[in-house]
Fold these 2 entries.
Entry 1:
Amino acid sequence: MSIVAGVDSSTQSCKIVVCDADTGEVLRTGRASHPNGTAVPAGAWLSAYREASADPSLLAEVEAMAVGGQQHGMVALDESGEPVRDALLWNDNRSASDAVDLMIELGGAEAWVEAVGSVPVAAMTVSKIRWLARNEPDNAARTAQVVLPHDWLTWQLGGRSFGPVTDRGDASGTCYFDATTNLYRDDIVELAFGRQLELPRVAEPQELVGETPEGIGLAAGTGDNMAAGLGLGLTHGSAVVSLGTSGTAFAQSARQTRDPSGVVAGFADATGAFLPLVCTLNGARNLAGTAKLLGVDFAEFARLALSAPAGAEGVSFIPYLEGERTPPLPYAKGEMVGLDLDNFTPANIARAAIEGILWSLAYGLRTLAEYAGALDRVILTGGAAQSTAVQQIAPAVLGLPVTVTAVEESVAIGAARQAAWALGGTLPDWPVPQQRELEPTEADVKAAEEIHQRYHGIVTAHYTRI
Ligand SMILES: Nc1ncnc2c1ncn2[C@@H]1O[C@H](COP(=O)(O)OP(=O)(O)O)[C@@H](O)[C@H]1O
Ligand SMILES: O=C(CO)[C@@H](O)[C@H](O)COP(=O)(O)O
């Protein structure tokens, strides 16, 4: 039996799974936390990886490994490969006005989607390199190379014995890579940064790019959403909805997406196809924040939410506690709307928080379907998908059948599957065990439509752009 490992180096933590390369069976796991904040030293990801893998038996007999990492983060390196500053993460909004400037400078949203498939927002790496050039000229002058979080961690795990490497999936989130030609757009790097930068080589999806000092083969790795797609065996017609720090909704597509509204980003997947994706800034942490406000743990939060009726008796939670990215409202604040003396209950507040974060993605799914084709099923994943309330409420907001898989760490499992692919030469057919299948009832479909109309009305009236 060959053994492989997958690493999920995502916003809040580092998770490692060790799997049987033939069957995908999970043999061992490890995890450690990342520091809070939207700008962190890259070294913290390596420290968390070391902590998560501290038990020497965890990686025993592992032959190959890959890293799935949070997308878009800017890791700026000097000539000797050392970070010039803390990495700016995908959810750092300081580059919001840089994104707007770049949008205009290239000729508008249409020009961007034609060039790279996505419209720049603060999250995209291109906006962050512009921010660096404008705001920290000394650090910008010292920057020789910019890599993404998963590129950086793979390079460190390989003891820096090869040059930094990325993959097509994660590169597609920079906004300076064209996933239809698989080439960097040097002109866009020049536009954003004022000069050329060294960029990581783009490896093939099944390539072994090097090995660790202990002799574990390293596959190219990819962005966390691309890895989740691999881990969940995503196929045409299904969408994944992930509720981690971010909320994401994505599907597989044979063609590049070019959505000038900016709702759907035109990313690439980890197999050579495309991964149109909607991302919100407000996922699981809005639920944690609401549970804290109510003074309850997640179990009681779920019980409360499930004790309220669908629609939370008209209470709407506009989930912009961290600003927002889709729609592009980086400075927005959250709101609780529609309260009266009768409906102002902890149960309705808890349910509305879940309905609110899911509605943002339900809205995204409508646009996603325009580009990825009809979507007849949603696979729910990410930390907050562990909540029974999120699982049960999802069909009444999304209006679609919802599959909850027994695969909790879909990103790490996807990375392990990529490692098995690189090791054996063919993408192994790992089964995805299901935990539950929730069919929407007629009442769920009706509730989903009512919630959509209500939330869309509020957001359109209260905010200037959607
Ligand atoms: N039962 C639950 N109910 C709601 N949220 C949960 C539950 N369990 C975990 N979470 C949340 O999931 C998040 C972590 O999810 P994860 O997908 O690992 O995030 P990330 O990939 O962004 O690091 C945390 O914010 C945590 O509070
Ligand atoms: O920016 C995006 C997708 O475009 C985020 O989905 C990040 O990739 C972070 O993911 P999580 O850590 O929330 O899973």
Note: Residues 10-13, 244-245, 284-285, 287-288, 298, 382-384, 386-387 surround adenosine-5'-diphosphate (ligand 1) (CB under 6 Å).
Entry 2:
Amino acid sequence: MTGVELRDIGVTLAGRPVLQGVSARLEEPRVGIVGRNGSGKTTLARVIAGLVAPDAGQARIDGADMAADRRAALATVGIIFQNPDHQIIFPTVLEEIAFGLTQQGQRPRAAEAAARAMLDRFGKGHWAPAATHSLSQGQKQLLCLMAVLAMRPRVVVMDEPFSGLDIPTRLQLMRYLDGIAAQVVMITHDPGQLRGFDRILWLEGGRLIADGPPDAVLPRFEAQMREWGGLDDLAHLAG
Ligand SMILES: Nc1ncnc2c1ncn2[C@@H]1O[C@H](COP(=O)(O)OP(=O)(O)OP(=O)(O)O)[C@@H](O)[C@H]1O
């Protein structure tokens, strides 16, 4: 089958269930994942990208198990983390983008040419020799997006990619996203970033508590967040 298939996913970390019984078949071009802090969103993103193997159930993309088949994962799925500093490892922009392509088996010269082509596509050809540490947070996030897209993934998983960015930078990055052909699975706390999305998954306490089109899920999600926002549950410490 095509698309992301999550079948009864369970993940336990440090003896605690973090995801339980999560099942969904995602074929829509734009899928959002919402939920409170600690609800398991990042863990689910990592499961989809094959970075975490579930303790129970199966996660597949286009029929392949991303955690077991890292070669298929490199060709199929890319992930963009919340903090680009956790993702960027090379001193220059060109090296950063070319790296993933050499990982996929391209020769260095071909990888460099493809990296330059990706920079040109975003009108950022002049960034090639720039030092990655000199980029702003928004520029770093765009670099991560270009590095992932250069690998031509079928699915791009994004874990709160716009947090910490100012509004114009966020809007620019969202516009870039509009133009990409890959299926996007995006985690966010901000329902405003999910305009135009096709489907929303809502996680609470590691379980999927709602799954449907934005019109059906987001108004309930926002009402619930406002209600919980009125309570003082920050006083409790996890046991
Ligand atoms: N490596 C780990 N070891 C132990 N517990 C973990 C680990 N990673 C995450 N957890 C716990 O799993 C739960 C879910 O974490 P996760 O990061 O998936 O949630 P989240 O919904 O993405 O949260 P946030 O919105 O705050 O980023 C949390 O209670 C967290 O403390």
Note: The longest helix spans residues 214-229.
